Amino acid sequence: MELIKKNIHMDRIKCKASTQITMEDDINITDSRPDVYQLIEEQGEVVIDEIRAVQDHVYVKGKLEFSVLYLSDDDVRRPASMQGSIPFDEQIYMEGVAPTDSVSIKKDLEDLSVGMINSRKLSVQSLIRLGLYVEELYDEEAAVELSSAEPVEFRQKTINLASLAIQKKDIFRIREEMELPGGYPNIFEIFWQNCRLGETDFRISEGKLSLQGEVQLFFLYEGEGENRPVMWYEAVIPFSGVLDCQGLRERMVDDIACQIGHKEIEVKADTDGEERIIGLEIVLDLDMKIYEEEQTEILSDVYGVTKEIEAVSGVGNLKQLLMKNTGKTKIAGHFKVAAGLPKMQQLCHSECEIQLAETKIVEEGLRITGAAAIKSLYGTGDPEVPYDSISGTIPFSYVLEIPGISPDCTYKLDAVPEGLSVTMIDADEVDVKAVLVFHGIVFNHYEEPMIQEVKVTDLDPDKLSSLPGIVAYIAREGDSLWNIGKKYYVPVSQIKDINELASDEIHPGDKLLIVKGIS
User: Fold this and answer.
1) 25, 175, 329, 398: which has the fewest C-beta neighbours closer than 10 Å?
2) Does residue 250 come out as left (phi exceeding 0), alpha (psi in the -120 to 50 range) or beta?
3) What number of helices (H) and strands (E) belong to the chain?
């Protein structure tokens, strides 16, 4: 007698930890940059250089890279910028992590503020949150069938699974060249640039992963010419492509994290030798997990007809996809120019960043609370302060519907802004509208009794002789043909034949004739 088993390939979180890092430093303006008259805005990015695990601890080495846009302290106030970095080296307690584990990290720049100490020195303060986790792959061995030369009865049950079919990292390159429209002066120097990844969509086909999305590009530049005009240019650059992915099949479910890993903007000369071509090269880092939903029949019980058979069961830890869902919510608000700042004459560029404060499992799904941080660069028409920025936050609370969710579920959530609209009401106030898009994938984790082995022994003669040869059995509440057959060592099919039953269904009060098969 042999159990036929199937390996179920799954993944789970082995251990995780999180920490906040507060960073503060005074940064000198580099000699090649002009003195600071007034700060306009700043942007930053957390870069991880090294992750090293030891027993129960993880060492993380990285840096905060930041850029500052300001007005120069010259006779003519002109935009200027500088870049800098602040390193960090952290030891984080993470119970259960081992030196051989591969540690993944999620990094968020929760706050960045830059202040002016004097015309050659800035104060930089930031708050960084690091989330660390170790994922492990594991196999559950499930008995799905029984092979036996002896007559034996077994039954199966259907379980729903999300097996991990593919796990890999890949990259996707975006290369584009754009020419400045007519009416824009040639580019002499780029003061400030911003490049963000917009909504990205993935589609699965046989052996292929298709992706499409858009990149949002903005830059402020000094034009060629006697007056050295300050100009800005922004564009939405669509992209699409296909990656080969062996083993990929339709109807699989993707869980893909996509972010910009490298970006480079280069100004090139056109065919006339004029600096009007913008070359953009972006590398998207893809962290791919592909799941396959399946229904598997596993053995749930077994009994012998001519032999005593005992099923030895254990507990399997299984994972199933509860739901993958996308939801949207609209936000709106008004911001005013702060007292003492110059009035707005023209908006140059606006951007939105979603700051998640809390994600909580509730009865209806995932309750997401946070704020959308909006920042707009504007021109003033004032030669003393020709550019400045206005910013504000719009709080939100939204429930992404996930029917059947429970506190034991695990989830992954991404939030992306789309359709940002910032318009001037007057010189002091702007109207803001946007749509926030939430992508969530939720898994249910559960324990399932699973037969691990069967023990076969000879029937006890005394027990067998105590059973009557023929029994007139009246079904009671909770009875089934399986339980009755198991009690009397009779195949279910034999009970059905003798009693001319078309199905396995019986009801309390039904009269059954049970004939013992062996003596």
Assistant:
1) 175
2) beta
3) 3, 20
CA distance 146 to 452: 12
Output the pTM of the full model.
0.88
Measured distance CA(42)–CA(461) in Å, rounded: 87
What distance in Å separates the CA atoms of residue 248 and residue 216, rounded to the nearest whole number? 30
Residues 270-329 pLDDT 10s: 999 999 999 999 999 999 999 999 999 999 999 988 888 888 999 999 999 999 999 999
Nearest to 81 by CA among 25, 128, 122: 122
Contact, 131 vs 90, CB < 8 A?
no
Q: Please name each of the domains of the chain with its CATH number.
A: 13-137 (no CATH), 166-298 (no CATH), 318-454 (no CATH), 465-515 (3.10.350.10)
Paired tokens of 342: 């110059």
Alpha-helical runs (H) found in 401-460: none
Q: Please give the Cα distance from 235 to 195 (Å, whole number).
A: 10
| 189: phi then psi, degrees, rounded to nearest 5 | -155, 135
User: What is the distance between the terminal CA atoms of the chain, rounded to a whole angstrom?
Assistant: 22
> Cα separation of 275 and 188, whole Å?
7
Tokens of 404: 């059947």
pLDDT in tens, 183-194: 899 999 999 999
Cβ 205 vs Cβ 276: under 8 Å: no
